[in-house]
Amino acid sequence: MSRVYVAPISFGLGDLVVSLPVVQALIEQARRTGGETWLVARSSAQTKLAERIEGLGGCVDEDTFDARAGGDRFVDLRDHPLQRDYWWGSPEFEQAFGPLSINEILGRICADFGIDAKFTRPVPLTTRPRPKLRSSVLFVTESDGPSKRWSAENWASLAQSIRNLGLDVRLVTRDEVSAEMRAAGIEATSAPTPGDAIDVLSACRAVIGIDTGLTHIAVQQGSPTVTICRANTIFLRPWPHARAVTGGQCDDACTSLEKDYAYNERVSLRGFRWQPRTCPVGGRCLDPVQPADVLRTLGELL
Predict the structure, then answer these.
(1) Does the residue 139 lie in any domain?
(2) Domain carrying residue 80
(3) Mean pLDDT for all residues in the chain
């Protein structure tokens, strides 16, 4: 049986989620020809998420995967000039290509790779029911890195406004709730694994989150989702159930640090060890976002 292996755009959970239209197109293509599609996971989180991709033949870790073995096809979404030549969202990228969204970028890559991927609507990951969350608005407040933060005071104010609408508010947590968020008085919903996160983010009334992997999962699942993000919205997928509330432009010091951090020229991420970035100016780019702005945007989706 022939196999197609596909590696997502990078190692993050959200990187696999936004790559799903490509993975799903290859699964459908292999199904028609009697073959299989396997994921080349670039992190342990991606390996766990792979269990929820319907029709996937299997999953292999990039660190042990040998692309030269056998005659199977390997589609590496990093191995393309659009990925290698520029850091997405950088001034240089926008000068060369304009303000493309992630769907538009992947659409161009797929056209060159001969992959008929569809970006008009998301195909959800498989879920298990969580009926108790049907009337809950879930908050995604934390990311693996410290550079994406909206203040606990803002979250607390937003939570109260949503409760005034007659809706429940919950905080999605993987581990322990931070002291700041505990003080905000928002009840936690535990999602220790990517599969658990998929289940809760699919079952709720809506999701509000910073620009991180769990928020991308909510969008993939078709849940009404508001993303709180930096001024650059390259990873926003412009579907009817998704909105963004944007902050201010990044400080020059932050932009310079991101330029030094960029690893776009690196195709294989074998052995790559990600280090979280700390914003040199305290992550203030999200400060302009006010709870009233987010509440108003949520109202467009409810």
Answers:
(1) yes
(2) 3-113
(3) 90
